[in-house]
Amino acid sequence: MDKERSQSIVSRFAELRILVIGDIMLDEFIWGKVSRISPEAPVPVVNVTAESYYPGGAANVARNLREFNSQVMVMGAAGCDPQGERLVQLLDSAGIDTSGVTRDSAFTTTVKTRIIARNQQVVRVDRERKTNLSGAHMERAIAYLERAIAAVDAVIIADYGKGFLTQPLADVIREKALAAHTILTVDPHPHTSLVWKDATAIKPNRMEAFLAAGLPAAEPVEPVLADHALLEAARRLMELWRPRSLLITLGEQGMLLMEDAAPPHHIPTRAQTVFDVSGAGDTAIGAFTLGLAAGATPVEAADLANRASGIAVGKLGTATVSATELLASFAA
Fold first, then answer.
1. Contact assessment for residue 203 and residue 236, using Cβ atoms and an 8 Å cutoff
2. By the 8 A CB rule, do 114 and 27 touch?
3. What H or E segment, with its residue span, contains residue 246?
4. Which of 53, 161, 208, 244 is most buried per CB count within 10 Å?
5. Strands 18-22 and 97-104
6. What confidence score (pLDDT) does residue 319 get?
7. Is 263 in a helix, a strand, or coil?
8. ∠ Cα 206 211 165 (to 5°)
């Protein structure tokens, strides 16, 4: 895709209305310095210098979208705890519509804490408890979906397996999106086994693709289009899920795009330096969906997603990418 075509597509992003549905969580970063090894165990002692908080999970997808337009909505659940309060405040302050966020006292807000020293992640600590929505909160979520879906250009599903998304809710989302002729893209979770048949596009990573296809994981092969194990997993997923497009992210190998009427297409990685892969998948599904909603072909949208995630992994933390940065990658 050339510079002029990319500018034409990205210029439409600001007009789009996107609804993100899934497991929202809080990302906590503890920044510090390491000067010695603990006398208690062979681990580094981190002297904390700063702490920062960002929306995580599905909320990070919404945060990435917000860099490109002001009409982003998020639907999910947060606990009635201080972490849930902080998460909703972060989304509100970013200008993201949180009217679809359910505050449920039975929920514990998921928090992922990353300790960073010398530009490296030392350890990640997860505080989470998988909880499904109560009947009343499920009805409220469906009512919100019915109101919102007619007004959006695309729906993104970000499933992190924390309990918000269930098969009954997935079926309603799919039914409403198809009826409204709304783009539906899915970032699936391999351990939830939710069925998302007939979605516009589904974006697993390599490991998730093998798990969902019921195949043992295989080592990457070069070139990617000669990776027969990967191609077989992709073929099975196209039959199982029946999406219009299947985009498999491959880390340092880039991405593999599958479409019904086209041969497999490999997009090499654009990443120059990798500091932190946290949230790179969120960046990818956001850019890919924006591209499709703006009229890009799946190949063009995958190119945008590949470039955006390549920029994101060159930053520390769950980073976002701006339109200026994305367009600069084409100029370069």
1. no
2. yes
3. strand 245-249
4. 208
5. unpaired
6. 78
7. strand
8. 100
Count up the domains in the chain and report the number: 1
From first to last of its 332 residues, what are the pLDDT tens digits of the chain?
A: 888 999 999 999 999 999 999 999 999 999 999 989 999 999 999 999 999 999 999 999 999 999 999 999 999 999 999 999 999 999 999 999 999 999 988 889 999 999 999 888 899 999 998 887 788 888 999 999 999 999 999 999 999 999 899 999 999 999 999 999 999 999 999 887 788 999 999 999 999 999 999 999 999 999 999 999 999 999 999 999 999 999 999 999 999 999 988 999 999 987 666 655 667 899 999 999 999 999 999 999 999 999 999 998 888 767 789 999 999 999 87
Inter-residue contact 9 to 326 (CB < 8 Å): no
Domain CATH code at residue 87: 3.40.1190.20
**Paired strand residues for 51:** 30
Residue type, 230: L
- Residues 107, 188, 217, CA angle at the centre, nearest 5°? 120
β pairing state of 255-259 and 245-249: antiparallel
CA-based radius of gyration for the chain:
19
By DSSP bridging, strand 154-158 and strand 18-22 are parallel
C-beta separation of 25 from 109 below 8 A? yes
Residues in the chain: 332
pLDDT of residue 299: 97
Task: Spell out the SS3 assignment of 169-237.
Answer: HHHHHHHHHHHCCCEEEEECCCCCCCCCCCCCEECCEHHHHHHHHCCCCCCCCCCHHHCHHHHHHHHHH
Tell me whether residue 223 is in a domain.
Answer: no
C-alpha span between 263 and 233 (Å, rounded): 15
- Residues tagged active-site: 282
Expressed as residue numbers, the domain containing 36 is 3-202+261-331
CA dihedral for 271, 277, 281, 282, sign (positive or negative): negative
> Is 231 inside any structural domain?
no
Left, alpha or beta for 84 (phi > 0: left; psi -120 to 50: alpha)?
alpha
Q: Are β-strands 183-187 and 154-158 bridged in parallel, bridged antiparallel, or unpaired?
A: parallel
Tokens of 281: 């998948």
Q: Is residue 229 part of a domain?
A: no
Q: Per the omega criterion (within 30 degrees of 0), is the bond before 220 cis?
A: no
